[in-house]
Amino acid sequence: MPFGLCNAPATFQRCMTSIFSDLIEEMVEVFMDDFSVYGASFSSCLSNLCRVLQRCEETNLVLNWEKCHFMVREGIVLGHKISEKGIELDRAKVDVMLQLPVPKTVKDIKEFSGSCRVLQKIHQGFLKDSKTLDKASVQETDFEFDEECHKSWTLLKDALVSAPIVQAPNWDHPFEIMCDASDYAVGAVLGQKIDKKLNVIYYASKTMDDAQCKYATTEKELLAIVFAFEKFRSYIVGSKVIVHTDHAALRHIFAKKDTKPRLLRWILLLQEFDIEVVDKKGVENGVADHLSRMRVEDMSPHQ
């Protein structure tokens, strides 16, 4: 494949996915030219590795042995530390970030905020803290790193140290989504309940546009569910999904035939999923409620 073609990355990814199609999610994960082989024990990992290497021979894939690591308990994959505990931040990158001086220019803020984006998935307060710095980075007047900016900068650095370990999905268990909507934003948490304990996989939130802010309460709550399912689609498609919401009317809206066209359109979007809606008291839905009260921009709005 020649270099420089705009479709080359997507074509290469499809090629790799096709080669390992029957092994993906069973013993190997593939991203472009990087793939990880795993197993529950040393013997199973060795057996899986043999199958993957045999597939490489059959398809004439050439490996760079200097970049290969075999039979390790943890490693850095796509900027994250992967181990039997779950997914963590790369500690080497965190240590570098902690040594950064206080930003003195707009460029410094943008570089710091960009480097902190790894927190977006695994730290529920990231977007709230980063919003203040984002505002400072677009100042048209003289740059001013005030006390509020310094507080947000400090909180983000502390978050890098205390970022939680999020879990990789277990495909043998149903997924659970906690959703909530406030007057101006929606929030969602993807997780799985294993041994009666909720393991968090992903946090997400987004700010509504002016039109969405005028929606009725039921519309906002359903918008939160649609946002969550589009955001987490790659995880949940084909799996059982339990949706927790503090808006009881949503349990019955899927059976109504005379609802608004907008709601019908959203309901149709959700038809491809295996959904069970469960009532959850607002006080028990704290994380999603907290996320829905952040003013953030995450993805394109639903009209």
UniProtKB/TrEMBL annotation:
Residues 172-273 form the Reverse transcriptase RNase H-like domain. Pfam families: RT_RNaseH, RVT_1. GO terms for molecular function: endonuclease activity; hydrolase activity; RNA-directed DNA polymerase activity. InterPro entries: DNA/RNA_pol_sf, Rev_trsase/Diguanyl_cyclase, RT_dom, RT_RNaseH. Residues 1-82 form the Reverse transcriptase domain. PANTHER family: ENZYMATIC POLYPROTEIN-RELATED, RNA-DIRECTED DNA POLYMERASE. This is Reverse transcriptase domain-containing protein. The lineage of its organism: Eukaryota, Viridiplantae, Streptophyta, Embryophyta, Tracheophyta.
